[in-house]
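Render this sequence as a predicted structure.
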Amino acid sequence: MRAVATEACRRAVNGTDFLRRVKDETGFEFDIITSREEAELALESCTPLLPMDGRRALLFDIGGGSTELAWVRLTCGRPELIGYDSLPVGVVTLAERWGDAGFSADGFEAMVADVVDRLQSFEKVHCIAREIRCGGVRLLGTSGTVTTLAGVALNLERYRRVAVDGVALPSTEAADALSHLRALGREGLLQHPCVGPERVEFVLPGCAVFAAITRVWPAPQVIVADRGLREGVLLRLMRADRATSRYDARRRDVVRP
């Protein structure tokens, strides 16, 4: 097994001390992975949803403490990571910063504007908006926010992964779903089957990040992924296990009398 920690422990002053305590009390040893490895793991898990057609893809993962961006060339075989970035804004950090103000129209727009500003440096380096206008970019989102928007757009009575993972959500339908969630207010979000009480504080901050990304990079559709970091870790473990098994088999063949 492998256990990993991400942005919260990267940023926290006592992140290392916290993980040492976790090891002492549970026996689990966590690696604090870099933002690049976090982006690579998310990309690894989402690769089967992307066509290897020589175009580009922008993968985004809206997390709790950060939002990961991966700019990818879809070559034959495996995708090539061109650039990546980790924005220090996620659903938890925005919720803590804006609180109840995030449920108002002005507060929501302020959250969006904040994230838009943070996206500009990545856009300036890679000129993704120009690539989108030329029709050569796939936009793929992996996070609870994106899957929630897909569940709302699909009018699911309850969330079902099989109905959401891999669906291509038109931008107009995503925007309608986002507007619907905003209109529900706190009480409506509490009752919504795709949200519920545990996530009510974090849905609109996540929607603000999504709105900012699609405002800066207005692709005609978003591929929705109900997979990400954990699946990427699992795939790497499986690949390493297969490689070890093949190596052991070759050694047995060599030493066999």
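Summary. The chain has eleven helices and eight strands. The longest strand covers residues 80-87.
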